[in-house]
């Protein structure tokens, strides 16, 4: 195995030198990131299949509604600190790590009363299942996101093999707990969601303490906190896009409609996660690069990256009718049309994610905030107008418009830099 890796390294180095590109870095780390993403997708797919086949469409819809509430309120944990922390660790400012975790934890405590308020609302509305599940969400909330930053610590140090081990272990642990709860309780929504909350909290805390040994110094990036506020505002806009549609559908329509929509967007979400993970390989290089190298990376790879995503989307268009029926059964056949329609957004989505990292490397957070604020507000307005009248179709059309406008804007500002 070592001999094979040595041959691959020399070959990739030889090819990389011809194109002035650090190919060995991407071959080695790209393997771990790709392997990690494949495992994550397979486990996530398996979990969604179990939930779809062994629970009712109503339970699956309510489960996704709860996940959307938990996810959109996680903005209170200041998720923008992850990117600030990534940049700090990449620059070997490891002392930032614990301070960033404490910062996120203290902000998360402010979210507890909000969860309790929402739980009380659903209690007085007579929906005890949602009320109890949201109440438990408030209890576990401060411990899930803040202590989940070990992944940032490892990836920023380019320890992608270790990151894969921890990420995969967490995903398998959570999936196993949720699947066990499905077979024990079948349509017991509270048991299923409590299993999700407990397993996430337990494994996040366990891995947080077990990765302390990778903190190598006490140096601190002085600008991390200020940058975190700005980047959290950017994250909030992304969270609005990711979850506002599901929350609106969950409020306005029957849970079964949200289940159909969730199955349709699951594959697109997995694809977006895969793009994000692959871009994590590039991020340490971007954050260390000077302006000349950054511009060179942009001009050399942006078109190729977009064309690859367009090709993948075309292939998936023809595969979805078979995959959705085989995996989720015929009761989710109506999800096929929405999944195929959603593929139109994939190239623009991937391009936006790449350009966002590029602009962050230029420390253009303020510019990004203004741009995303404008288009996120527009997207939210589209949701409010189109979803009540067009339902699931309106949600997807809104997303397609949003990402294409954002990609065009980011592309303009990136080339202007």
Order of helix and strand elements from N to C terminus: HHHHHHHHHHHHHHHHH
Which residues form runs of ≥5 with pLDDT under 50?
1-5
* Count of helix runs: 17
Please count the beta strands (DSSP E, at least 2 residues each).
0
Give the end-to-end Cα distance, rounded to a whole number of Å.
44 Å
Q: What Rg is obtained from the alpha carbons, in whole angstroms?
A: 21 Å
Specify the structural class. Answer: mainly alpha
Biggest sheet, in brief? none
State the domain count: 1
Residue share in helix: over 70%
pLDDT averaged over residues: 84
Shape: globular
- Report the portion of residues in β strands: under 5%
TL;DR of this structure?
The protein is mostly helical and 417 residues long. The protein has helices at residues 2-18, 23-54, 57-73, 81-90, 96-109, 112-124, 128-144, 150-156, 160-185, 189-210, 224-252, 255-288, 291-328, 335-342, 346-361, 365-390, 392-416.
């Amino acid at each position: 195995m070592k001999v094979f890796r040595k041959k691959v390294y020399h070959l990739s180095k030889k090819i990389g030198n011809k194109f002035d590109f650090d190919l060995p870095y991407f071959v080695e780390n790209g393997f771990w990131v790709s392997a990690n993403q494949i495992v994550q997708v397979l486990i996530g797919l398996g979990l969604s299949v179990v939930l779809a086949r062994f629970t009712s469409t109503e339970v699956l819809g309510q489960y996704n509604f709860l996940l959307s509430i938990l996810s959109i309120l996680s903005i209170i944990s200041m998720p923008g600190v992850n990117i600030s922390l990534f940049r700090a660790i990449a620059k070997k400012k490891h002392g930032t790590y614990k301070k960033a975790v404490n910062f996120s934890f203290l902000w998360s405590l402010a979210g507890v009363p909000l969860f309790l308020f929402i739980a009380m609302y659903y209690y007085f509305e007579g929906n005890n299942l949602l009320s109890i599940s949201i109440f438990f969400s408030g209890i576990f909330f401060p411990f899930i996101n803040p202590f989940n930053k070990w992944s940032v610590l490892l990836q920023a140090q380019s320890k992608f093999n270790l990151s894969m081990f921890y990420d995969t272990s967490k995903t398998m642990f959570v999936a196993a707990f949720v699947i066990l709860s499905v077979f024990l309780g079948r349509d017991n929504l509270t048991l299923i969601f409590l299993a999700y909350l407990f397993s996430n909290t337990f494994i996040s805390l366990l891995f947080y303490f077990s990765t302390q040994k990778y903190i190598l110094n006490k140096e601190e990036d002085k600008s991390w906190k200020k940058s975190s506020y700005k980047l959290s505002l950017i994250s909030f806009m992304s969270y609005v896009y990711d979850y506002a549609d599901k929350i609106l559908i969950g409020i306005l329509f029957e849970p079964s409609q949200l289940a159909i929509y969730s199955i349709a967007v699951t594959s697109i979400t997995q694809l977006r996660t895969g793009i994000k993970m692959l871009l994590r390989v590039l991020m340490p290089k971007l954050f260390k690069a000077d302006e000349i190298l950054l511009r060179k990376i942009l001009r050399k790879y942006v078109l190729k990256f977009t064309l690859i995503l367009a090709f993948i989307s075309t292939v998936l268009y023809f595969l979805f009718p078979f995959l959705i029926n085989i995996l989720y059964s015929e009761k989710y056949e109506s999800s096929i049309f929405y999944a195929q329609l959603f593929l139109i957004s994939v190239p623009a989505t991937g391009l936006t994610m790449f350009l966002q990292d590029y602009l962050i490397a230029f420390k253009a957070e303020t510019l990004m905030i203004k741009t995303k604020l404008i288009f996120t507000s527009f997207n939210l307005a589209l949701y409010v107008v189109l979803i009540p009248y067009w339902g699931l179709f309106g949600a997807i059309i809104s997303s397609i418009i949003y990402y294409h406008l954002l990609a065009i804007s980011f592309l303009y500002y990136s080339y202007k830099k």
